[in-house]
Specification:
191 residues, alpha/beta, globular
Length: 191
Protein backbone atom coordinates (compact mmCIF):
# COMPACT_ATOMS: atom_id res chain seq x y z
CA UNK A 1 0.00 0.00 0.00
CA UNK A 2 1.23 3.49 -0.86
CA UNK A 3 0.75 6.11 1.85
CA UNK A 4 0.44 9.84 1.18
CA UNK A 5 1.25 12.16 4.04
CA UNK A 6 -0.97 15.21 3.53
CA UNK A 7 0.06 18.31 5.43
CA UNK A 8 0.14 22.10 5.34
CA UNK A 9 -0.68 24.95 7.64
CA UNK A 10 -4.09 25.68 9.05
CA UNK A 11 -6.57 27.03 6.50
CA UNK A 12 -4.55 26.10 3.41
CA UNK A 13 -6.94 23.50 2.01
CA UNK A 14 -5.81 20.11 3.34
CA UNK A 15 -9.42 19.05 3.90
CA UNK A 16 -10.33 20.00 0.33
CA UNK A 17 -7.46 17.88 -1.01
CA UNK A 18 -8.47 15.01 1.31
CA UNK A 19 -12.03 15.21 -0.06
CA UNK A 20 -10.68 15.11 -3.62
CA UNK A 21 -8.64 12.03 -2.67
CA UNK A 22 -11.72 10.33 -1.19
CA UNK A 23 -13.59 11.05 -4.46
CA UNK A 24 -10.79 9.11 -6.17
CA UNK A 25 -11.23 6.18 -3.76
CA UNK A 26 -8.17 6.95 -1.65
CA UNK A 27 -8.73 5.93 1.97
CA UNK A 28 -8.08 8.95 4.16
CA UNK A 29 -7.32 9.24 7.85
CA UNK A 30 -7.75 12.66 9.46
CA UNK A 31 -5.40 12.95 12.43
CA UNK A 32 -7.51 15.82 13.82
CA UNK A 33 -10.56 13.53 13.96
CA UNK A 34 -8.48 10.87 15.69
CA UNK A 35 -7.25 13.48 18.18
CA UNK A 36 -10.86 14.51 18.93
CA UNK A 37 -11.62 10.86 19.73
CA UNK A 38 -8.55 10.64 21.97
CA UNK A 39 -9.68 13.79 23.86
CA UNK A 40 -13.26 12.53 24.24
CA UNK A 41 -14.54 12.47 27.84
CA UNK A 42 -13.86 9.12 29.46
CA UNK A 43 -10.62 8.37 27.63
CA UNK A 44 -7.42 8.00 29.65
CA UNK A 45 -6.00 10.99 27.81
CA UNK A 46 -9.01 13.17 28.68
CA UNK A 47 -8.39 12.53 32.38
CA UNK A 48 -4.78 13.67 31.97
CA UNK A 49 -5.93 16.75 30.03
CA UNK A 50 -8.40 17.63 32.80
CA UNK A 51 -5.68 17.22 35.42
CA UNK A 52 -3.30 19.50 33.52
CA UNK A 53 -5.66 22.10 32.04
CA UNK A 54 -8.92 21.86 34.00
CA UNK A 55 -11.05 21.66 30.85
CA UNK A 56 -11.82 19.53 27.82
CA UNK A 57 -13.58 22.36 25.97
CA UNK A 58 -11.78 22.69 22.62
CA UNK A 59 -12.04 26.49 22.49
CA UNK A 60 -10.75 26.92 26.04
CA UNK A 61 -7.91 24.48 25.37
CA UNK A 62 -7.01 26.34 22.18
CA UNK A 63 -6.84 29.64 24.06
CA UNK A 64 -4.63 28.08 26.73
CA UNK A 65 -2.17 26.25 24.48
CA UNK A 66 -1.78 28.56 21.50
CA UNK A 67 -0.62 31.38 23.74
CA UNK A 68 1.81 29.20 25.73
CA UNK A 69 4.36 26.97 23.98
CA UNK A 70 4.96 24.90 27.13
CA UNK A 71 1.23 24.24 27.51
CA UNK A 72 1.00 23.22 23.85
CA UNK A 73 3.92 20.83 24.31
CA UNK A 74 2.17 19.34 27.36
CA UNK A 75 -1.08 18.81 25.44
CA UNK A 76 0.76 17.27 22.48
CA UNK A 77 2.68 14.96 24.83
CA UNK A 78 -0.65 13.68 26.16
CA UNK A 79 -2.51 13.35 22.85
CA UNK A 80 0.00 12.72 20.05
CA UNK A 81 1.39 9.31 21.11
CA UNK A 82 -2.10 7.80 21.20
CA UNK A 83 -3.05 9.48 17.90
CA UNK A 84 0.08 8.05 16.26
CA UNK A 85 -0.74 4.56 17.57
CA UNK A 86 -4.33 4.73 16.32
CA UNK A 87 -3.34 6.08 12.89
CA UNK A 88 -0.66 3.38 12.53
CA UNK A 89 -3.20 0.69 13.50
CA UNK A 90 -5.69 2.05 10.97
CA UNK A 91 -3.03 2.05 8.25
CA UNK A 92 -2.21 -1.57 9.09
CA UNK A 93 -5.91 -2.50 8.81
CA UNK A 94 -6.20 -0.76 5.45
CA UNK A 95 -3.09 -2.56 4.21
CA UNK A 96 -4.49 -5.94 5.29
CA UNK A 97 -7.76 -5.11 3.51
CA UNK A 98 -5.81 -4.68 0.28
CA UNK A 99 -6.22 -0.93 -0.03
CA UNK A 100 -3.81 0.35 -2.67
CA UNK A 101 -3.46 4.01 -1.60
CA UNK A 102 -4.17 5.72 1.71
CA UNK A 103 -3.60 9.27 2.91
CA UNK A 104 -2.92 10.59 6.39
CA UNK A 105 -4.00 14.21 6.84
CA UNK A 106 -1.97 15.70 9.70
CA UNK A 107 -0.97 19.29 10.35
CA UNK A 108 2.20 18.24 12.21
CA UNK A 109 3.07 15.25 10.03
CA UNK A 110 6.67 16.33 9.44
CA UNK A 111 7.35 16.48 13.19
CA UNK A 112 5.82 13.03 13.71
CA UNK A 113 7.25 9.52 13.41
CA UNK A 114 4.30 8.89 11.05
CA UNK A 115 6.35 10.73 8.43
CA UNK A 116 8.49 7.62 8.06
CA UNK A 117 5.41 5.59 7.09
CA UNK A 118 4.65 7.87 4.12
CA UNK A 119 5.79 7.13 0.59
CA UNK A 120 5.21 10.76 -0.38
CA UNK A 121 4.56 13.99 1.48
CA UNK A 122 2.04 16.30 -0.14
CA UNK A 123 2.08 19.86 1.17
CA UNK A 124 -0.88 22.15 0.57
CA UNK A 125 0.08 25.83 0.53
CA UNK A 126 -1.98 28.95 0.00
CA UNK A 127 -1.76 32.71 0.09
CA UNK A 128 -1.88 34.03 3.69
CA UNK A 129 -4.95 36.13 2.92
CA UNK A 130 -6.82 33.01 1.74
CA UNK A 131 -5.99 31.16 4.96
CA UNK A 132 -7.05 34.15 7.05
CA UNK A 133 -10.36 34.45 5.17
CA UNK A 134 -11.12 30.73 5.50
CA UNK A 135 -10.32 30.68 9.19
CA UNK A 136 -12.31 33.81 9.93
CA UNK A 137 -15.25 32.07 8.21
CA UNK A 138 -14.77 29.29 10.80
CA UNK A 139 -15.04 31.86 13.59
CA UNK A 140 -11.37 32.40 14.41
CA UNK A 141 -10.11 35.91 15.03
CA UNK A 142 -7.00 37.23 13.29
CA UNK A 143 -5.06 36.96 16.57
CA UNK A 144 -6.23 33.33 17.00
CA UNK A 145 -4.99 32.55 13.49
CA UNK A 146 -1.64 34.21 14.13
CA UNK A 147 -1.23 32.31 17.44
CA UNK A 148 -1.87 29.00 15.67
CA UNK A 149 0.39 29.78 12.73
CA UNK A 150 3.17 30.74 15.14
CA UNK A 151 3.13 27.12 16.36
CA UNK A 152 3.39 25.62 12.86
CA UNK A 153 6.21 25.24 10.36
CA UNK A 154 6.68 28.05 7.87
CA UNK A 155 5.54 27.51 4.29
CA UNK A 156 9.12 27.52 2.96
CA UNK A 157 10.13 24.78 5.39
CA UNK A 158 7.06 22.71 4.47
CA UNK A 159 7.73 23.10 0.75
CA UNK A 160 11.34 22.03 1.21
CA UNK A 161 10.15 18.76 2.79
CA UNK A 162 7.49 18.10 0.14
CA UNK A 163 7.47 15.52 -2.62
CA UNK A 164 4.37 17.25 -4.04
CA UNK A 165 3.18 20.84 -3.51
CA UNK A 166 -0.48 21.63 -4.13
CA UNK A 167 -1.70 25.20 -4.47
CA UNK A 168 -4.59 25.56 -2.04
CA UNK A 169 -5.34 29.04 -3.39
CA UNK A 170 -6.21 27.66 -6.82
CA UNK A 171 -9.82 27.13 -7.89
CA UNK A 172 -11.25 23.68 -7.23
CA UNK A 173 -10.79 22.55 -10.83
CA UNK A 174 -7.08 23.36 -10.77
CA UNK A 175 -6.69 21.75 -7.34
CA UNK A 176 -8.37 18.60 -8.66
CA UNK A 177 -6.01 18.59 -11.66
CA UNK A 178 -3.01 18.86 -9.32
CA UNK A 179 -4.34 15.93 -7.26
CA UNK A 180 -4.77 13.84 -10.42
CA UNK A 181 -1.21 14.57 -11.57
CA UNK A 182 0.20 13.76 -8.12
CA UNK A 183 -1.77 10.49 -7.91
CA UNK A 184 -0.51 9.50 -11.36
CA UNK A 185 3.03 10.18 -10.18
CA UNK A 186 2.49 8.07 -7.07
CA UNK A 187 1.05 5.19 -9.11
CA UNK A 188 4.02 5.47 -11.48
CA UNK A 189 6.39 4.97 -8.58
CA UNK A 190 7.31 8.63 -8.18
CA UNK A 191 8.12 8.53 -4.49
Amino acid sequence: MKVIGLTGNIGCGKSTVAALLREREVATIDADEVAREVRRPGSPESARILDRFGTLDPRQLARLVFEDAAALADLEAIVHPRVRDLVAAHLAELDQEGVMVAAVEAIKLLESPLRERCDQVWVVVCRPEDALRRLSERGLSESDVRDRLANQMGAAELIQAADVVIDGSADIGETARQVEVALAGLAGGGA
